[in-house]
Amino acid sequence: MRRFFVLILWLVVAAAAFMGWQQYGLLDEPYKGYPGPEQFVDIPPGTGSQAIGRSLTAAGVVSDPVTWRVALWRSGDATRLQAGEYRFTDAMTPADVIRKIARGEVYLRTITFREGLTVRQMGRVYEEAGFGPASAFVAATHDAQSITDLDPAARDLEGYLFPDTYALPRRASAEDLVRMMVERFRAAFTDDMRQAAASAGFGVREVVTLASLVEKETAQSDERAVVAGVFRNRLAKRMGLQCDPTVIYALELQGGFDGNLRRADLGLDSPYNTYRHAGLPPGPIAAPGRASLDAAAHPADVDYLYFVSRNDGSHVFAATLDEHNRNVFRYQVAPSRARSRR
Fold first, then answer.
1. Any idea what the Cα angle at residue 225 is, between residues 222 and 230, rounded to 5°?
2. Residue 189: exposed, middle, or buried by beta-carbon count in 10 A (0-12, 13-18, 19+)?
3. Stated pTM of the model
4. Domains of the chain
């Protein structure tokens, strides 16, 4: 009888050793048990390590819960696993899976908004990037509560959505993205900018509106503060800003801009038309970047009142109307005539 029990004991030990050997063998073996090219696993905050193992097993990312537990014990990372959604595309060893989750390599999609876009243009970027319909993005910007402490007159978030690259979870909503963009605007629009603007008699809405004009007028880093200085000088003299991008924005609001600005458009009846109305337009006409915000708050100390494009992305500035007219002839009229004679 004793020999029988000894034999049974040896069989149990041998079976356990075999299972242990087999389990340890699986720890270094890449595994992919899902049929498609990718698999997503969502780990909610507070999920325990065993529950994570069950989710990974059900998703075909690891072979079984026992292998997961052994691999997790060997890794020492049981308390480092991070919540989030993870994307798996290749066969991975359990150790690789654990490292991925312990490092928090959650799946995020990026979207980039360049400087100078309007809310509607951002909506198109949002849709083209596959995040959802443009209408959902635009609708999310109609709630201005997130900015009214800075701009009580804001009826939407035009100008307050900071242009940048954003990384979003797969299920992020348009509201989530808009919230991030406003937060980043707040970080970019520093206390120093606000104080400098206030000392010159400009509120937040006015300086952001001015920054949006600067953003649309020039992409040259060394010109932004000069352009802001020109606009500040014209405002001080109660001269019309005569800023073409404001007319284009007004046309876009009315759905009538086809990509060409015509002389007749300068007479458009709109409060945004700075050819017809002196002073700043009612609000921002685009999303200014950090450099344009800084330029609007800290304009160059210049005596210029005019500028005209050189047709190469840069501008030439003038302090008098006579000088400006000469510049217009040299850089606009003469080249246009030369082209028409060809």
1. 120
2. buried
3. 0.84
4. 26-102 (3.30.1490.480), 109-188 (3.30.1490), 191-302 (no CATH)
Contacting residues for 234 by C-beta, under 8 A, at least 6 apart:
240, 241, 305
Residue entry with tokens 């005209």: 308
* 308-316 own/partner pairs: CB under 8 Å, 24+ apart: 308/332, 311/335, 313/218, 313/219, 313/220, 314/218, 314/220, 314/223, 315/217, 315/218, 315/220, 315/223, 315/227
Q: How many residues are given for the chain?
A: 342
The DSSP code sequence of 59-111 is TTSSS-HHHHHHHHHHHT-TTT---EEEEE-S-B-HHHHHHHHHTT----EEE
For residue 47, give Cα distances in angstroms to 88, 96, 172: 19, 19, 21
The CA radius of gyration of the chain, in Å to the nearest whole number, is 31
d(CA 230, CA 224): 10
DSSP structure class, residue 166:
E
Distance CA 208, CA 197 (A): 10
Tokens of residue 196, six digits: 């400098």
Measured distance CA(253)–CA(256) in Å, rounded: 8
Q: Are 187 and 255 in contact (CB under 8 A)?
A: no
DSSP 271-318: TT-TTTS-S--SS-SS---HHHHHHHHS-------EEEE-SSS-EEEE
Could you report the average pLDDT of every consecutive run of 10 residues in the chain (342 residues)?
Answer: 50 43 66 96 96 97 94 94 96 96 96 97 96 97 95 96 96 96 97 95 96 96 97 96 95 86 89 95 97 97 96 94 95 80 69
DSSP 142: T
Q: How far apart are CA 176 and CA 285, in angstroms?
A: 23
